[in-house]
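Human:
If only I could read backbone structure tokens as easily as an amino acid sequence. I am handing you a single protein, as its sequence and its fold in token form. I hope you can help me see how the letters and the tokens relate. Thank you; the sequence and its tokens follow:
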Amino acid sequence: MKHIARKRFGQHFLSDPAIIDGIVRAIAPRAGEPMVEIGPGLAALTQPLVERLGQLTVIELDRDLAARLREHPHLRVVESDVLKVDFSALAGELGTARLRIVGNLPYNISSPILFHLLEHVQHVQDQHFMLQKEVVDRMVAAPATSDYGRLSVMLQWRYEMEDVLFVPPESFDPPPRVDSAVVRMVPRAAPAALDAALLSQLVQAAFSQRRKLLRHSLGKWLEAKGFKGDFDLQRRAEEVPVEEFVALAQAVAMEAK
């Protein structure tokens, strides 16, 4: 029986063979690698992946789709909301230090998923995700551009990222109303050590009034923290490189000790 896409799950099923092939080539799966696919849906990407890997773990929230997927002998199905999955524990269950994670993420909750995975980044080898192109543009954005913002800073602190493939709406059934793209995310080998929650608060304050100079937003946040250090607040948030936000977070944490 044909599965009807469910709006509440943000379901758009990939159906273009050329795009599927392009994604698989970008991922470059090898036999035996510990890989997890988020939102396998109708298994368009799942099938070519498991053929190359031999075994694949999939996370699927839709009960009907999960039941279909369980019929495949080489799939391990985790029927769950991805935001409730402990990826660190999952890596342990699969007997590996680091997972390869892939998926066509539901566009309505893509940012929460990315931030959830950030909490488990030490157990990630790499990530390849299909996302709304607008989100990928923000993820890989450079400073001094309109796309550069909180998402750019929080992810670039921890990952090297690359936009690897453009995906038009007609590649899906049903077609979404937006363009899509595939992003590659590789955790940095030696990221700056800091409190992620503190960096998040700092960056959120900085971009809360992105059209104004930082003294109107971040300046007040730093003042409330009692920070006495030196930081140029006579510029807009989008002008500040990731490394400077990270260094400031470290300085704030040090001064608070």
User: Anything to note?
Assistant: The radius of gyration is 20 Å. Residues 1-10 have pLDDT under 50 and may be disordered. DSSP finds ten helices and nine strands in the chain.
